[in-house]
Design goal:
Layout lengths: L1 H12 L10 E4 L2 E4 L2 E5 L12 H14 L14 H14 L3 E5 L2 H12 L5 E5 L4 H10 L2 E5 L4 H10 L6 E6 L11 H10 L2 E6 L14 H4 L8 E5 L9 E5 L1 H10 L1 H4 L6 H16 L2 H19 L11 E7 L1 H13 L2 E2 L1 E3 L9 E6 L6 H20 L1
Parallel strand pairs: 3-12, 5-6, 5-7, 7-8, 8-9
Antiparallel strand pairs: 1-2, 2-3, 4-10, 9-10, 11-14, 13-14
Bound molecules: 4'-deoxy-4'-aminopyridoxal-5'-phosphate.
C-alpha cells in the first residue's frame, strides 16, 4: 500500500502532518505532559464542568444504577428515561417544543442536514462552516452554494441568483470554531424570511457561552423564534459528550424517523447522559459561570490587543492568534509547550491556506494571573515574527 507512505510523506513535507499527544488532565485548566503541569488554553471545556463535583457525582451514580453502556440504539432498547429527561430539559433550555440527543455534535450535523435536505434542494453554507456541516451537506446530495464568510451581501446575491425548485436552507456555525466570531444571525433571519429558507444554526461553541444563560446564538440576538433548527453539543461547555437538536415537535419526530446517524448507532451511555443533565442544571443555577467566562475572554482579548498581537476582534472565548504559515504555527506551539502553555496549531485543511493560527480558548476556571502570564509568553513568541 504505497499510497499510505506517499500521503504521509506529502503531509510531512507540507508541515501538515498530524499526530495525537496524550495529555493527562489534572483540572479543567491544567494537564500533565511528560511530568510537567501545563496551562491548558486549548480546550472547549468552557465552563470547566468536566471536573464539577455535582456533574462527576451524577455520572458516577448513573453508571452504578444503569450500567456503563446503553446496549442498543435509540429506536430499539437504548432510550432510557434518563435521555428523555435530558431531551425535555434541553428543549426547556432552548425554549423549543422538543429536542433530540445524538451521540456527538458531528453526528447531529450530518444526521440533521442530510435528513432535511435532498437532491432537489439548495443549501447556502458559510465558507468557514465546520467540517461536520460540510459533510452533512455532501451526504444530503443537495446543491451547495457557499457564501463568503459572514458576508450578507454575498449571501443575498446568491439567494437571488440561484434557481431552486425544492427547499432552500441556510446553514451557519453560531460561533465560528476557528475564528471565534458570531454569525450575523439577524440578517440571516431576514434573508431567510425573504427567500423562504429554513435556518440551521450550529451552536457547538455558543451553547453555554453566549446569549442569556448561555442559551446560544439565536437567544443572543433575541430571534430564537426565527431559527427553526438549533443544533448544539454536550461535549464543550457542558463538559459531557453528545450532540442535540432543538426545534418543533414535528421536526424532532421527523428526525427520529429520518436521521440516519440517530437511527443506526448505539445510544449514549447513561453516565454521559447524567453528566449532561447535571451540567445543564449547573448552568441554570450558576449563571455567574457564563459571566466569568465572558469576562475572562474579554480580559485576554484586551491584553493581547494592548500587546499588539494580531487577533481579530470579537467577544467569545475562542481567540485566534494569527501567524499565517503552518510551520510557524507548529513551531510556536512547540515552543510554548516547552514553557508549559498548551495552545493548538490550526492549519489547513481546517482553515484556509495562509491563515494558520494558534487557537487559544479561555475558560471560566482560568485564573487572571495565569492568563496574564500566558499572554506574556505568547507575545514574546509571536512578536519577533512581526518584525521579519
Ligand atoms: N460543530 C462545530 C462548530 C464544532 O466545532 C464541533 C467540534 N469541533 C462540532 C460541531 C462537533 O461536535 P462534537 O465534538 O460534539 O462531535
Amino acid at each position: 500500500m504505497q499510497f499510505l507512505a506517499d500521503y504521509l510523506a506529502q503531509v510531512k513535507a507540507d508541515d501538515l502532518y498530524r499526530q495525537t499527544v496524550a495529555y493527562n488532565p489534572v483540572s479543567p485548566a491544567h494537564v500533565q505532559l511528560n511530568g510537567q503541569t501545563c496551562l491548558l488554553l486549548a480546550s472547549n471545556n468552557y465552563l470547566g464542568l468536566t471536573h464539577n463535583p455535582a456533574v462527576q457525582q451524577a455520572a458516577a451514580d448513573a453508571i452504578w444504577l444503569y450500567g456503563t453502556g446503553a446496549g442498543g440504539a435509540r429506536l430499539t432498547t437504548g432510550t432510557f428515561p434518563l435521555v428523555e429527561q435530558l431531551e425535555q430539559e434541553l428543549a426547556a433550555f432552548k425554549e423549543t417544543e422538543a429536542a433530540l440527543v445524538f451521540n456527538t455534535g458531528y453526528m447531529a450535523n450530518i444526521g440533521v442536514i442530510s435528513a432535511l435536505a435532498g437532491p432537489n434542494d439548495v443549501i447556502f453554507s458559510d465558507e468557514l462552516n465546520h467540517a461536520s456541516i460540510i459533510d452533512g451537506c455532501r451526504l444530503s446530495r443537495a446543491a451547495v452554494v457557499v457564501y463568503r464568510h459572514a458576508d450578507m451581501e454575498h449571501l443575498h446575491s446568491l439567494l437571488k441568483a440561484t434557481v431552486c425548485h425544492g427547499k432552500r436552507l441556510i446553514i451557519s456555525d453560531g460561533v465560528f470554531s476557528m475564528d471565534g466570531d458570531i454569525a450575523p444571525l439577524t440578517t440571516i433571519a431576514q434573508l431567510a424570511q425573504q427567500y423562504n429558507a429554513i435556518i440551521i444554526v450550529d451552536d457547538a461553541h455558543a451553547t453555554g457561552v453566549i446569549g442569556p444563560g448561555g442559551k446560544g446564538t439565536a437567544a443572543h440576538f433575541g430571534i430564537a423564534d426565527k431559527v427553526q433548527v438549533q443544533i448544539g453539543t454536550l461535549s464543550k461547555a457542558l463538559g459531557a459528550e453528545g450532540g442535540f437538536v432543538a426545534g418543533s415537535r414535528e421536526l424532532i419526530d421527523y428526525l427520529k424517523n429520518k436521521a440516519r446517524s440517530f437511527i443506526f448507532s448505539t445510544a449514549l451511555a447513561p453516565g454521559t447522559i447524567a453528566a449532561a443533565r447535571a451540567a445543564l442544571r449547573e448552568l441554570s443555577v450558576r449563571p455567574e459561570l457564563v459571566t466569568k467566562l465572558n469576562e475572562n475572554a474579554l480580559y485576554v482579548r484586551d491584553l493581547l490587543q494592548s500587546a499588539n498581537i494580531p487577533v481579530p476582534g470579537g467577544i467569545t472565548p475562542i481567540i485566534p492568534v494569527m501567524v499565517e504559515s503552518a510551520d510557524t504555527a507548529v513551531r510556536l506551539t512547540a515552543e510554548l509547550r516547552q514553557q508549559g502553555i498548551i495552545l493548538t496549531a490550526i492549519r489547513p485543511p481546517t482553515v484556509p491556506v495562509g491563515t494558520s493560527r494558534l487557537r487559544m480558548t479561555v475558560t471560566a476556571v482560568h485564573e487572571r494571573e495565569e492568563l496574564a502570564a500566558a499572554v506574556d509568553a505568547i507575545s514574546r513568541a509571536v512578536k519577533p515574527l512581526r518584525k521579519t
